[in-house]
Amino acid sequence: MIEITDKKEFHLSNQHVSYIFRVMEKTHILEHLYFGPRINSYDNYDFLIERDVRTGNNFIMGDHTSSFEHIKQEVPVYGTTDFRYPSIELEYSDGDRISHFEYFDYRLSKGKTREKGQPRSFASEQEAEVLTVILKNRYSDIFLELDYGLYKDLPIITRQQRLINKSRENISIEQFMSLNLDIPNENYEWVHLDGAWARERHVKRQEVQPGVQHISSTRGASSHVYNPFFALVSAQTTENKGNAIGIALIYSGNFLAQIERDNFEVLRLQIGINPYQFKWLLKPNEMFQTPEAVVCYSDSGLNGMSQTFHDFFNFHVINNKWQKDPRPVLINSWEATYFDFNEEKLLEIAQTAKRIGIDLFVLDDGWFGTRDSDEGSLGNWKIDYRKLPNGIKGLSEKIHSMGLKFGLWIEPEMISMDTPLYKKHPEWVIGHPQKNISHGRNQYVLNFAIPEVVENIYHQLESILNESKIDYIKWDMNRYISEAYSVLLPRQQQGELFHRYILGVYQLYEMLIDNFPDIMIESCAGGGGRFDAAMLYYAPQAWTSDNTDAIERLKIQYGTSFVYPLSTIGAHISEVPNHQVGRTTPLTTRSEVAMFGTFGFELDITKLNEDELLLLSNEISKYKLYQSLITQGKFYRLLSPFDSDITAWMVVAKDQSEALVGIYQPLDKPNDHYHRLKLPGLNPKLRYHYMIHGKNVIRFGDDLEKIGLILADNYTDRVGEFWSREKQGDFYSKLIYLKT
Ligand code: DGJ
């Protein structure tokens, strides 16, 4: 419901949340009043105004009360009496940077279409309504449109902003955030995800300190280092209790997520395109639109926040087409063969894969040019007939005739210097031709800001996709952008390169999807270097990390689940000793970790013995049995690998009829203390059946929440001395399935 009072106070509310702001007297800017749990409607919201006249302020001309420094604002603009960081800064042709955006008009609409060109959430007319508030610059015909998306059944508000230049002069956008939210500090802490290659999205929780704190990317991709997400939580907030405000950005390029705590305990939360290295020339009659930000409120802890994000991304960002059928269980050739394969070897793997119930075979890097190592051939998307004498077409036909689907790896944004494309178009590489252009993994970044570059790559890929039957693409991206410079952009537009680049990436995604709508795409960036909501808009699943070790994956998948649904989290069983950390873990543990994601394999299964193959075949059957529960249920994190010896999580069916708990203990402990695992989210009144230590147990949902699962042996008979009993050993895991 969107209510607008005569005094132009806007109240967006649904059964969960309220978001309120008003047009401020005299200044006509938008003053933020409230965001949080739903409150009642009033005729007048003056009681929410919170500001004092303070000495030592600068006041606008003719006024002694309005200092923007103390106003909670919807869109703070540079060039006022607000000394905090603005969300918009514009530069005019005479070099001045003073703007003042005043209320002009509003419009209401229902539903949100699936947009072209820039990912953002979508919804039917019944599911969401949008309030667009239009502001006009006091000094020129520059209009600012603010979209507030209100979802009917979710505690979610989306924010997106547009600048429209109806003046006669060029302006330069120096900064344009997607969201600004000024709220009172309540001893908040903040949670974000950070890491590096092979240890992506580890959870960090810190006190919000006075001053500015931020996470960002300057690398041309959302990156392994930080994720475009943060949450504000009360000190008491746990996984299941307390409040949390989660903020995510639907964007894959350079972002900034910032909290500024001022000296009157107001927190300014911002997320958007990183203003560092950004500048955009907006000519008369042009429009610039920010990426969309998503704000979620939870009063049921971090799990509540994550569950909302999961529903939101599953149903309003990921193309609905991919929700209908279960995702295929796949085997990827990378860790099985790396670059060293031929058709015969691949078919051998595929045959064994088929035998144990795998659905999709994905051929990874190394099938094109003369790519026997990572030293060359990117950008030369011609089949390597030395390795594949029957081409991709022949291979995919043979794979299909076995009853498997076929997938292919590409890395379209990159170029190697040994390719005809590089020799013909060296100017298509990002960098300055007379200065150092650094390589990353021996490769260079194609300038996707140039439409001809995107088209060239599209046409190269199109011919392979047209001649072969391909069901799946794994789209990789293995280096960041450094020395950002485009020979084809004029001086005053160099600051557009990063954003134009990512729009070019979206453009190629759209060309592929428009022309090959049945191909499912998995995104990947050296593992999880671009795991963000915008990628999910095109690619419904992502390769979570190049680290496939089950124990490392506990942390990576735990952190990833803060924002992204299990249906998106690519998780594979790989070989031991593990290729990234050298650890040897049991096959069942590797399987029971990988099951909480889009399940797959990443090893040469032809090397496994019959017992291992039988075990895997049973694991696949088990996964298929639980797949809809895992990908469509509510996910609860129970024990964190970051602060507990045991990790545990579970999914509960939305109708609460069943649940699956995963418990993992990296190191065995002799004579350990007792452990009880409290299970939230079950129906308190229903009885659940489950097996533990070979015994069938029946318990009510409410006692499973209050008392918890008793993990000890339930030792009622004399079953042997401690010394002779079987030990669980290190890297132990257990699944417990509960059914009403
Ligand atoms: C990085 C990816 O994350 C891996 O899965 C694999 O596809 C390699 N690149 C191939 O070069």
Automatic annotation (TrEMBL):
Keyword terms, alphabetized: Glycosidase, Hydrolase
PROSITE patterns for the chain: ALPHA_GALACTOSIDASE
Taxonomic source organism: Globicatella sulfidifaciens DSM 15739
Segments forming domain Glycosyl hydrolase family 36 N-terminal: 30-283
Domain Glycosyl hydrolase family 36 C-terminal: 647-738
MF (Gene Ontology): alpha-galactosidase activity
Binding-site list for substrate: 197, 364-365, 441, 474-478, 524, 546
Recorded catalytic activity of this chain's protein: Hydrolysis of terminal, non-reducing alpha-D-galactose residues in alpha-D-galactosides, including galactose oligosaccharides, galactomannans and galactolipids
Gene Ontology BP annotations: carbohydrate catabolic process
EC number: 3.2.1.22
Protein name per UniProt: Alpha-galactosidase
Similarity comment: Belongs to the glycosyl hydrolase 36 family.
Entry annotated with the keyword Hydrolase: yes
Active site residues per record: 476 (nucleophile), 546 (proton donor)
A Pfam family this chain is assigned to: Glyco_hydro_36N
